[in-house]
Every structure is written in structure tokens, then in C-alpha cells.
Amino acid sequence: MAERRVRVRFAPSPTGALHIGGVRTALYNYLFARRHGGDFVFRIEDTDSLRFVPGAEEYIIESFRWLGLKFDEGVTFGGEHGPYRQSERREIYKEYVEKLLANDKAYIAFDTPEELECKRNEIPNFQYDARTRMQMRNSLTLSKEETDQLIEDGEQYVVRFKIDPGEEVHVNDMIRGDVMIKSDILDDKVLYKSADELPTYHLANIVDDHLMEITHVIRGEEWLPSAPLHVLLYRAFGWEATMPQFAHLPLLLKPEGKGKLSKRDGDRLGFPVFPLEWKDPKTGEISTGFRESGYFPEAVINFLALLGWNPGTDQELFSLDELVAAFDITRCSKAGAKFDFQKGIWFNHEYILRKSDDEIARLFAPIVANNGVDETLERVTQVVSMMKDRVNFVKELWPLCSFFFIPPTEYDEKTVKKRWKPDSAKVMSELAEVLESVQDFTVEGQEHVVLAWVEQQGYKLGDVMNAFRLALVGIGKGPGMFDISAFLGKEETLKRLHKAIDTLK
Ligand code: GLU
């Protein structure tokens, strides 16, 4: 058989904000598609109208736009296999439900919720399957005429998949290998409901994967229990030859302790679990996103790529292209991946370092302007180059850097106690005079003159510099002193020195 072109899909249900685990699923699909020169399809699985949340689809699309993960076809992207929204494919599913019915692979069931409840009370661990289906009200126990009549009378029904017992169902998983379950444990799943004339997830999922020529189904571990049923559906349709290969990705786990990562973990420990900020349309509750928290999309991608997959080397920093080149789905782990959000912060820091000062300055400049400071981009870039290695997020720059732009209005009490000695005012006055005389006010130009003066006076360099720092910065921290004074320039440096002398005495 000719090699098929690789086609994968990301198929979220628009039930709310996209969880970060969903983003990872999409990322692995993307990497797999690119690695194998295939297509990445975006499908919306919205057959469960009760769970539909307005705005969710737009949110998902915007998330991937921000992350820079491009789909080749799908909802809003077009393509030859559309429509890509399941709610727009009702007629297609009906046809396939009819096929299963005609081939005796499915049957119509009329049992009301009350009748089902009654059975559950009667039979312990009741399951609608080969052992019980002949006791129920369905097209297997009713005559054809009765069945047709009930439908004609408008009675609601569902179509159930007729699963044969006594079979071993094998799912060939690219990560987990051969997963086998016995068909006896499966129930006759509902595939279609007359009430809303819509198929259930299982049927729509399989029909679409088939019609959209999907070759590999890469999805979260929570779908592994459905996989045997999906394999049986492919068989029932006679589509074994083009059945996709499966890969069920490991769960994302809590940063500490056991269990699945939840939004509550994020709230509790202070990290986002959504790519973008999300406002719940029902409750109005706002949840922060990675974007709004100041993460770079590249950092989020790099972080997620390594949650459940490893390249087999020590390399941690990967561009998207490097990830594509390195990605091998068989290197995904079976065991759940701890969501180490500190590592996510570390990645962001690394990307700050890797980005040019100019790029960071362009992000920082609006913050500077919002604080009422009018500075050129060049000056902001100078500050960024001195300070960016100290922060994990651009938003952390302002509190650390504001002194470059705004003179201190007060002096940190503790630092004053420790660093402002009885003779500091006198020494700083002398320093001001020395600096006044410096022609070349660059870092080297000042250093040269000031160090000579300190030595000649027999002062302790540490004491001088500490007081100098306090005068210019207002606290005991910051980059190299002459870097600061060179940036401020002679006039501003002297102004700040005199102000400190006057204030602190
Ligand atoms: N609609 C399912 C979800 O929301 C898709 C599962 C699958 O990829 O088969 O995750």
C-alpha cells in the first residue's frame, strides 16, 4: 500500500478555556505533522450542545495565533475536507449511522431514562451490552413493524453500537505499544440521539477522522479508554486499512503531590493553566493566562514540549524549528509529567536572555512611558542591557529599574543605617567635586579618576561606593555604580549626590 500523507488533527470541544494540557496535545500534533511533512487540521467537536460555551472557539484560535502554531486547514482556515465544525456535519453522520444499522452493527433503543434506572436497580453493575440488550426495549427485541411505528409516533430513541463479546481488541499505541482489552467489558455505546439529531462524540470522531484522512491520532491519555471502542468502530465500517495510529500522551500532573493538574493548583500556587486570560461567560470569573502573566510564546512552547517528551540529550532550549527537527513521538513517556511551573519561569528567563536588548526594550518602553517617563528607545535599551539578566518577566523590570529614570525621593532606612556613615556626607561632597572635574564621564573615565582619589585619601572603596549607591539609587542594590552614573550623566549624578547629602547629612 502506498505511504499515506501524514495528517493529524487537533479536535477540541468548545466547552471553555483551553487547558494547558490541550495546548501541549496540539503542540505535539503540530510537531509530528511538521516533522513528517504532513498536515495539521483544526476540527471543532461541538456535538454536545449542552456543554457549548460561547467564545470558546475564538479563544482557542487566538491562543494558537499567539503561540505561533499554524494550522493547515480546519475551522476558519478552510480546506478540502470541510466543514470542520461537527455541528455543521449532521447530514454526514446520519448517513453513517444508517450504514451501521443496515449492516446490523448497531441497533435502535427506545429505553427511557426511567426504564434504564429501573434496570440499574434490578441488576447490580448493570451494563447495556450483549448480556442485557435482549431484555431491553430496542430494535433487537421488537419487531421491525413495532420499531418503525415507534419512530413514526415520534418516540425518542438512540442508536447503540452492537459490540460482540469474547473478542480481544488491540490498540496499537505509538507510545504505549500494544494495549489489549476484552470486548466484554465494553458497553453498547450510544452513537446517535434522535432528540437532537446529533451523533455522540465517538461516532462523529471516527467518521471525521476517516473522512478527513487522519493518519495519526495524538491525544490525551484520558481518551485511551475510548480507543478500543474506536478500533471496533473502524472495523464495523470496514475501514481497518486506513485506521489511524494512536498515541495517548501522558497526563500533566500537579507540581507537587499526586493527581492531575487542575486550575485550582494554579490558583493556589500562583501560575496560569490557560494560554490566554479567560473570562467565564456564566460566572464572570476571570482566570489569568500565560500571555497576560508575561510569558513569551516561545518559552511556553519550549516548556510544554519537554513535559512528557525528551530529546534523549541534555538540550533544554529549543526553537520551534529545532523541536520539529528533534521530535520523535516514540520518545514520549508513558508516566505522567509533573507540571513544574518553576521550570516554566526559568524558560522565560532564558528567553529574556536570548532575545536582543532592543526587542526587550520595545516591550519595556511602553511601561516606562506609562510611568510618566519620556525616554528614547536607545536609553531604555541601555537600561535593559544592564538589568535584563535579573528578571524572569519584562514586567519585573520597572520596579528594579525605575531609579534610572526617576531620582529617589526617599532612602531605604535599613540601608541608611548600615551604609551612611558619620563621615559619608563629607566624603560624598568630596566625591561630587572629583566627579565635577571628570571630563570623560564614561564608566572608564570616572573609574580611573575616582579610584585614584579613593586610594590617595586612604578611604575604604566599599564604604565610598555604598554611600554613592545609596545617594543615586535610594537602596543598596543595582548594577555597577559607574554604569549607573555614566547612564545618568554628570549633571544628574551630581544633583542626586547633593540631594542625598542635604537629606541625610
Ligand atoms: N473532542 C475531544 C476533546 O475535546 C477530542 C478527543 C480526540 O482527540 O479524539 O479532547
UniProtKB/TrEMBL annotation:
Q: What's its top-level EC category?
A: ligase
What keywords would UniProt list here?
Aminoacyl-tRNA synthetase, ATP-binding, Cytoplasm, Ligase, Nucleotide-binding, Protein biosynthesis
Residues binding ATP, per UniProt:
K263
Please state the Enzyme Commission number of this protein: 6.1.1.17
Instruction: State the reactions this protein catalyses.
Output: tRNA(Glu) + L-glutamate + ATP = L-glutamyl-tRNA(Glu) + AMP + diphosphate
Q: Which family does it belong to?
A: Belongs to the class-I aminoacyl-tRNA synthetase family. Glutamate--tRNA ligase type 1 subfamily.
Job description of the protein = Catalyzes the attachment of glutamate to tRNA(Glu) in a two-step reaction: glutamate is first activated by ATP to form Glu-AMP and then transferred to the acceptor end of tRNA(Glu).
State whether it acts alone or in a complex, and with which partners, per the record.
Monomer.
Full protein name: Glutamate--tRNA ligase
Q: Which organism is it from?
A: Hoylesella enoeca
